[in-house]
Amino acid sequence: MLSSVSNCSAQSKYRSHYISLSDITLVADMTGALYWPSKSMLIIADMHLEKGSSFAVRGQLLPPYDTRDTLLRLAQVINFYQAQTIVALGDSFHDKKAFDRIGREDLEILRQIQIGRNWIWIRGNHDPQICSAAGGECLKELLIQGLTLRHEPNPVQGKHEIAGHMHPVAKLKLYGHSLRLSCFVLNQTRLVMPAFGSYTGGLNVLDPAFIPLFGNDELVVWVQGEQGLYPIAKRMLRKDYAAC
Amino acid sequence: MQHSVCLPVPIQKWFFSRGWEPRPHQLKLLAQGRARRSSLLIAPTGAGKTFAGFLPTLDDLISIPERKRQGAGLHTLYISPLKALAVDIERNLKIPLREMQLPITVETRSGDTSPAKRQRQRIHPPDVLLTTPEQLALLLSNEDGSYIFTDLKNVIIDELHALTGSKRGDLLALGLARLRTIAVDLLTIGLSATVARPTELRAYLMQQRYPQQQTDIADLVYLQSEIKPDISILETEKSLPWSGHTSRYAIPDIYRALKQHRLTLIFVNTRSQAELIFQELWYANEAHLPIALHHGSLDSQKRRKVETAMAEGRLKAVVCTSTLDLGIDWGNIDLVINIGAPKGASRLIQRVGRANHRLDEPSKAILVPANRFEVLECRAAVDAVRAGMQDNILTHAGTLDVLAQHIMSTACAGPFATNDLYNEICSAQPYSYLTKKMFERVLNFVTTGGYALRAYERFARLKPTKNGLLRLAHPRLAKQHRLNIGTIVNSPMVKIRMTHSHKKKSSARDRSLSGGRVLGEMEEYFIGELKIGDAFIFAGQVLRFEGMRETDAYVSNAASDDPLIPSYRGGKFPLSSHLASRVRIILANGGLNNDLPTSVQEWLQLQHKKSILPGPNEVLVETFSRQRRSYIVAYPFEGRLTHQTLGMLLTRRLQRANAQPLGFVATDYALSIWCAKDIGAMLKTGRLDVEKLFNEDMLGDDLEAWLAESSLMKRTFRMCAVIAGLIECYHPGKTKTGRQMTASSDLMFDMLCKYDPNHILLEAAWNDAVTGLLDIGRLGDFLKRIKTQIRHINLNKVSPLSVPILLEIGQERVQLSQPDDLLRSIALELIAEAGLD
């Protein structure tokens, strides 16, 4: 019947882009991961593992492949950059019981990609505790070269930070086609990462929730296409509704 | 003629008091009822069909007057495809009942029925309940479902031809099978307009007892109309438009026609056309005639008001969509105007039947083609009706998503035995060929999701009981399920509410939107594209968009010369195969033997001179260049859906052949692809072969690869996923987390394609795509038919026949397969702007 969707080619010249945050050079990848070359560190946010099975608990039996898909994509991007340290920026697990629900094979994939690497779980609101069986180290936040890596962006003290939590998406209208795509959103000092999980939805970057973080000054948006990552001018962005 | 049957005395008296005679088919149906034989009555509109259907019921109820006092439940269930029809029947049944002084209770039940009334209907049901297939499914999913229906004797299904062959028909067939288990010796009566092959409808009405060996069919009672309808094509002085669907040019002629008649129904194919024609008629309405608007998005109270005004003869004309299409009896209509092409002969007969609901006078109708191709189609339709031809209802196998929903509904009503359920389902005609294996796969889907790689056993929705039955795992699941029963998957709807204009207030913060009356509902995506202050047309008024709050859109009255007209998705019917072949014949003889307007004849003759007119079995393919683009235009006349799929597949092939296709557009009649490379030259030099280009092997790998990323396929899948209960219907403005799952059906689709390509829902979506949205079945037939029948002509300029389709470019949305090309272009723009190169 249907054959599987072809994977994006790693050679795409749009695959990744250098971005600069507080004068530190980082690489934004089309998968939604962020690579810090000088630290050999790969950062991903909001995997929401076992989100699918959380619906099953309530009787909605969604395809139970989100965890596998998320972990396989993660394995690919780790392999691509040969990263030594992995930082999961919170909401890695969809809920407190998510880890108990992971299938045996999927857990094995996680174990495999952790071997020989430093693994840091940042706690998020969905996963305030992380089971020690998940391996790695568990932190509230992480400070490196003046940049704080935390789950929820902090508009008060959080200058110079990399955060997740928001699941930013950009809505575009191009030649009558409406697109709604996950994106990185940043200014000089703050970066909010797209959600990495396979079943995660998103919040429009023009939503008022982003105003305390980016004010009205120029923000930069990089959207995830099927084959690459593309910068989008702010004037091209659309709201979800003409809400008031 | 047999007159051994007599009407029961009260009915006899009532007929006598009015000077009427019972008609033969009415007496025949009465006899069928007394013999308890299920029947299909085929009769033209206006033959007293519905009354005939109710005769066995009235006969029964008159003969056992003490029935009610003995506390008996529902006697007759009447099911119609439309709510409006049920309301209309209620009115038309209650009047004679009152006049005959019969104490028979008749009630309707629909989505609009109040919860209190519904509750009461379940405890004290009326004698006759008028409802829709969805409401029946809902009633059957209740734990007391069997209690209500135990005494049921008769089921009447009106407009049966409009239900069979669709998912709603499947839902109803399964409901009928259930009813037959609950109430023994059920009598079914189907009412239908003329159809080409009634056997399928007759089988639908019967319990299939030995589905693998023989098909049981109901008796046929047939009444043919002797008077042919009087159908003509609008005569106009004006030259016909080349393209477009508005029919604006015809407004003065339409207005003149409706002035000369008592009551005119103006049928259009889409809601946006309804709004537009209504608006234009108002501008032309110098005499201030009472003209009304009726379509499915309007608030139900507004619709009821229009219907009542019609029945009371207070209106001169009503502009309406298919919501008024089926069997509604509002006596006074003496003219039907059909705007745009009718798309099928049966649909046309149905619509024309609205005029003059009396058998002894011909119904009168005028067709208004919106453009030149539609003239050909209208001509073909008129010829088909005169020849008494009808479109086929295609043989249809019951859909799997509806089956999944039915299994869950059954579980909601109480524990069931798997084997009994399987046998019951097979007794429904659309499912009579369902294999045990397929049934088990669907059951497995309902229970645990039916996933290949990982089982949800822990979260199973159905659990075995001690005595080997299956029961619902939790009562909460039933509540959740009942909210989602039905087969009509709408895109999310937004309520349109009146409020005050906020134009004068400057600050956005001052805006307080508070409730006014509801005008109706509109698809969320249209509202989503409006800016505050935009003017648009809805419910026949020009409105100003004031903003959104929760699930409501607020609007105020406005004056604008150039309001937007909502484009409603759906509601566009594809051209029927039968009409398509007639159009090809008209084209083949250059319209010479057919009575066509001069401007259209000249156009075809010009085509004959400059290019060719293809033979009735041929397909014409033209190539030419224009403004540095190369065009390839094909004229299959197979309907828009088929052309869209064909266009996608041809584009892929041209891409591989390095012709650099840039876009394509498809209409009901033709499709055009434009490319950067000269296709004419490629075909001439043999670098491209036209036979190979249209080879049917495109339905193999190309189709699969395209489907996996096609938005049409995703939409088909979403429909199956919602009906089957995988995802619940989304309601706008719930919460942020609710919104986060809205795109989810696409995610589910991708996940299944990647990890579980044999999953039952992909199979269900595929089956639907083959017959429905993508019309792959028809495309396959087309490609087979045109093998060696392709006439390719390379021209040095645009051909007359191609003008209408080229004019659609820019009007229609151009299809694309990859969003990345677009993203790249605007990214490059930005990079250049910022001097990042």
Structural notes for this entry:
The complex is a heterodimer of chains A (244) and B (837). Chain A has helices at residues 51-57, 66-81, 98-101, 104-114, 211-214, and strands at residues 16-21, 24-29, 34-36, 41-44, 85-88, 118-122, 137-139, 142-144, 147-149, 161-163, 168-174, 177-186, 190-192, 203-204, 220-224, 229-232, 237-238. Chain A has 244 residues and is α/β, with parallel strands linked by helices. Chain A has one domain: Purple Acid Phosphatase, chain A, domain 2 (4-Layer Sandwich), CATH 3.60.21. In chain A, a hairpin with a 4-residue loop joins β3 (34-36) and β4 (41-44). Residues 1-11 of chain A have low confidence and may be disordered. Chain B is an alpha/beta fold. Chain B folds into five domains: 9-222, Rossmann fold; 230-386, 3-Layer(aba) Sandwich (Rossmann fold), CATH 3.40.50.300; 400-482; 494-505 and 514-557, no CATH class; 612-710 and 774-837. Chain B is globular, with a radius of gyration of 28 Å. Chain B starts with 8 loop residues before the first helix and ends with a helix.
What is the compact description of this entry?
Chain A has 244 residues and is α/β, with parallel strands linked by helices. Chain A has 5 helices and 17 strands. Chain B is globular, with a radius of gyration of 28 Å.
Mean pLDDT of chain A: 88
CATH architectural name of chain A? 4-Layer Sandwich
Query: Which chains have the largest interface?
Result: A-B, 51 and 75 residues
CATH structural fold name of chain A: Purple Acid Phosphatase, chain A, domain 2
Low-confidence segments of chain B, given as residue ranges, are 505-510, 730-743
* Poorly predicted tracts of residues of chain A: 1-11
Strand content of chain B: 5-15%
Span between N and C termini of chain A? 46 Å
> What fold name stands as the CATH topology of the largest domain in chain B?
Rossmann fold
Proper CATH architecture of the largest domain in chain B: 3-Layer(aba) Sandwich
Main sheet overview of chain A:
10 strands, mixed
Under the CATH scheme, which class of chain A?
Alpha Beta
Tell me the count of domains of chain A: 1
> Helix fraction of chain A?
10-25%
Q: What is the CATH superfamily of the largest domain in chain B?
A: P-loop containing nucleotide triphosphate hydrolases
Q: Count of helices of chain A? A: 5
Computed Rg of chain B = 28 Å
